[in-house]
Amino acid sequence: MTTNGLFQIGLYLAVLLLLVKPLGAYMARVFQSERTFLHPVLRPIENLIYRICGIEEAAEQSWKRYAGGALVFSAVGMLLTYLLMRVQQWLPWNPQGLGNVAADLSWNTAASFTTNTNWQSYTPETTMSYLTEMAALATHNFFSAAMGMAVAIAVVRGFSRHSSKTLGNFWVDFTRSIVYILLPLSIVVALLLCSQGVIQNLHPYTKAATLEGAVQTLPQGPAASQEVIKLLGTNGGGFLNANSAHPYENPTPFTNFIQMLLIFVIPAGLTYTFGKMVKDTRQGWALLAAMTVLFLAGVFVVYSAEQGGNPILAKRGLQTQATATQPGGNMEGKEVRFGIANTALFTVITTDASCGAINNAHDSLTPLGGLVPLVNIELGEVVFGGVGSGLYGILLFAILAVFIAGLMVGRTPEYLGKKIEQKEVKMVMLSVLVMAFSILGFAAAGINLSTVGNSLTNHGPHGLSEVLYAYTSAVGNNGSAFAGLNANTMYLNVTLGLAMLFGRFLMLIPLLAAAGSLAAKKQVPVSAGTFPTHGPLFVALLVGVVVIVGALTFFPALSLGPVVEHFLMQQGRLWS
Amino acid sequence: MPVATVTPVNTDDTSLISKRAARARPLFDPPIVKRAIGDSFVKLNPRAMMKNPVMFVVEVGAVMTTILAARDLASGAALGGFTFQITLWLWFTVLFANFAEAMAEGRGKAQADTLRKTKTETTARKLINGKTETVAATMLRAGDVVLVEAGETIPGDGDVIEGIASVDESAITGESAPVIRESGGDRSAVTGGTKVLSDWIKVKITSNPGETFLDRMIALVEGAERQKTPNEIALNIMIAGLTLVFLLAVVTLQPFAAFSVHSSGSGTAPSVTVLISLLVCLIPTTIGGLLSAIGIAGMDRVMQHNVLAMSGKAVEAAGDVNTLLLDKTGTITLGNRQAVEFIPLNGVTEAEVADAAQLSSLADETPEGRSIVVLAKQRYNIRGREVAEHEAHFIPFTAQTRMSGVDIDGRQVRKGATDSVMEFVAEHGGAPCGELTEITDRISRSGGTPLVVADGGRALGVVHLKDVVKGGMRERFEQLRAMGIRTVMITGDNPLTASAIAAEAGVDDFLAQATPRDKMDLIKKEQAGGRLVAMTGDGTNDAPALAQADVGLAMNTGTMAAKEAGNMVDLDSNPTKLIEIVAIGKQLLMTRGALFTFSIANDVAKYFAILPAMFMVTYPEMGKLNIMGLHTPQSAVLAAVIFNALIIMALIPLALRGVKYRPMSAASLLRRNLLIYGVGGVIAPFPGIWLIDRLLGLLRLA
């Protein structure tokens, strides 16, 4: 690890943490129906939307109605996306004349964008028309992110309200997420990205002659407008196949920095929003501290593993030490303009969050470097996490932590004044089970099938990692790919699509149910007998529970993938 | 409210739970152990095991390996092979868990047997139209009236409607000193199975056969009616969920292993025996095996304190209590306030006050009344008069009028609370007097109780009653404060008196001049704020509040209505025991939490034992994970399984006794317990498994 690298990581964290309070406070005002500085401009737009859609702003919803809203909206959105892809050939804004998308791929992609996963079994520039990109995919980037925020806010209301039958109004929270938070930020930052060289046009692809005299096709399109929300909404679906490694999407180290900030800024800010809404900002800072600890742990494992390089290469006499003129370490699959530190950082950020955008090939990371993204997703993407889903995910673990250790203070466990009882435990365990069941179940069912085996480019532990990563990424609604697995097959498209839907909705519904039950409870006043859920002890406990629950569930599978691969690499054993 | 027996508080005991429980019965009583060993096998019945998902999984695993071991034997393998040993230890795991539960139950059963002996073949003399008829006690129905004379056993629960008798209640309370039961008032309730020692009483039976107090008590201690408590259910869901997660992790490991074996071209996928071993080691067997024992033992600990909890839920709620309502008299103070001084008003002699005070107290059987009579006799040699010679009409004290006295020879002598008596004086044409207020205020400020004495419209003076706070109460309230529990003193005294005593005793708050209705309102107010309230009571007018409170501890000396309304009955009738019950409730929850955390933390080490052993052949490089240096794969798996079984056995005493509880803030408790059971739970299995592995090597078992 170099001083420069460490400095860049430190700078990133510092800027991120500075943004937490202002953005978090702003979002708290938005969701608590308080006036913000943008109200003069945006309030009329918000009202117009309510009028057009017939939304009654003051109408409160029970958790069931709230979840119902989210489900119906997702179902309709998914269906429309599917249909658009199936007929794009006959629709405008298709200068390349791309054909209709196959049924299984359309299913997979519709599920993928609806669930905020943005797993891409296809190469965008040769598959999706500009219209599909803009009308179906970019819009879903907004919708799925807004839905995550709405659900997170509803879950927070489960704690902040008491003796209440309702959790707010889904349509209102959803609309406000887009109008006040996602859209303004996207517009401003999109212009900034354009200024750095990210493309934004509706031109046909450019034919360019290379120095060698060969002809290369350069894809074009409305990339910048989709780029921001791809990151800000922790969606991750690239406009181009190479995603944020492509110079048209992520041209400079500065845009790279902006992109990494965009991924974490809302999830980090939401912890402060949470603290504001439960009227104890210390609670939000505690969650943020736990996230930061886990984040830094991941970054340092990846960074040191990648900078350490491959000992097999070192043994052959290759230079793997960083020098003034070259980065050293493992540069395979990395962009030279980002270097090892920023690649490690991006890799960890994109998998801590449910983003899945990539600026390097995860498949080419060292075994430990590849283990971290896998583990990050398997921990439930609660380290900052997805927009909204990160907050409700970490709250799930907070409930779990409080229940496990809270009994040890001799009281019925309570979090933020709410007793954690049968119903909450049942719902939280259901979410944990769904996660484990979907990841391990799908991966185990598929791994020995010939259809999956034929898609694999690697065997041995790395092959196992590729399959495990695909389903982990789908269930975690991450969308990043380990690559090395040709996922555009009937079996993989269908099962990955299912895995994404399970991972999104079977997690979200139990949590809303738990929130509904929590909102109905009375608030127990804090006393010396209350388990304190701020402060370092709770942070340590929360980190411990996240790691132990994740590790206990996935360690056996991981031990046969990246873990053993690491030992094999150390001993110089190679696989085809 | 007068309370019949007051047990002095043991002041030098720093723990909230007295040592009494420890003395009651040794933890491993040989007859109980013997019976528990037998019961451990009876409990193997799968239908019973199904109630405990974790241990049921272990049993299913044990059955599967048994079949595999039998197949091995049939195909000529030697006895004592790997599968055989694993099978043996899996069965031990189940048996150890059953043994823990049977031990916990056994202690209750032993107690139930003793109780049942008192229930034997009692006959009753039922009164029908003034004549008695001998019937079996089991034939009695609610509403029947029976006559019980000296030497007879009371055939059922009921109320004394006529007569007075001394009753031996030792069968229920263990207390050998007889108590007086008489018709009317708060001492009319009698319990079936107790014995009349002298005189006779007529008892109206209030319960049907099978529903008597004794029946309920037997059912409770035996655990026959045991229902899982809310927290126990939540914990059960959690461990069942984790069991499913681990089941998934282990089941999916098979295809992953098959893929790896195929890829690397060496080794074999792990055998079913090894997979079952891994599963059993991972699922939370420690807490799963001990959970019900912890609950039963918690109830038993309450029982050892001579408190009858009607449900485990009540004991659990006790741990959550935020506010403790304690009656001043008999709980915080010794109960018998003593008259220490007669203070006359200007123009009245001290002897005159003493005379009037004594006169008004002649029929007053409360300790206060008696102390007035005694003081008047000691100081002024005024002797009790034979009131029968006069036309005397005694006015008893009530909670509403708050004064008592006598109408004698045309005089209306009253003594009582200042405002009540002054109201009385005003009604009879007297005027309020500043001097009186001065005196009463002075007494109140000093923590005493002023009793104003008046004769018709003329206030005479004040009796100074002194209340004695029990030793050690201040320390106890400090401990409660550290636990986050607020104590509220309930008293009929005026606010001044109340605040002086409250300050002396160190309670957080007080409710002065409290009527039963005020008490009820306070409970509702606290509950509306999300707090859980505990209280004690014995009178019929306490019944609604006892029912409303989350933990209502009724005194055994109290009325049947109070006992029915509360969710616990203290057989010793010692209201301070509420504090101990709170501690037991906390201890119960803490024990569950500690063993659960320990159980999960243990898994880390087991992975390091079993995973490298599983894939030693496929990936020899995995040996790096064998950080304990276990000598063979078989030995590693066996050592983990053995450790897993033995830890259940090792923790039985902890489950039965409960983890140590010291009153301290939640933050420091958490830090301490996380360190012991969390961090300790991660570390402990490493040396444990390593040691077992060495022993297996030495004994050449693996």
Describe this structure as you would to a colleague:
- The complex is a heterodimer of chains A (576) and B (702).
- Chain A has helices spanning 3-31, 39-53, 63-87, 103-114, 124-127, 130-160, 170-196, 224-232, 253-277, 281-308, 311-315, 339-352, 367-378, 389-406, 422-447, 450-455, 460-475, 490-519, 535-570; strands spanning 206-209, 215-218, 414-415, 418-419.
- Chain A is mainly alpha-helical and 576 residues long.
- In chain A, the strands form two sheets. In chain A, strands 1-2 form a two-stranded antiparallel ribbon. In chain A, strands 3-4 form a two-stranded antiparallel sheet.
- In chain A, strand 3 and strand 4 form a beta hairpin.
- Chain A is globular and about 70 Å long.
- Chain A starts with a helix and ends in a 6-residue tail after the last helix.
- The mean pLDDT of chain A is 93.
- Chain B is α+β, with helices and mostly antiparallel strands and 702 residues long.
- Helix content of chain B is 51%, strand content 16%.
- In chain B, the strands form three sheets. In chain B, strands 1, 2, 3, 4, 5, 6 and 7 form a seven-stranded antiparallel beta sheet that branches. Chain B has a seven-stranded mixed beta sheet with strand order 8-20-19-18-9-16-17, sandwiched between helices.
- In chain B, helix 21 (577-614) runs parallel beside helix 23 (666-683) and helix 22 (633-657) packs across helix 24 (685-698).
- Chain B is elongated.
- The termini of chain B are far apart.
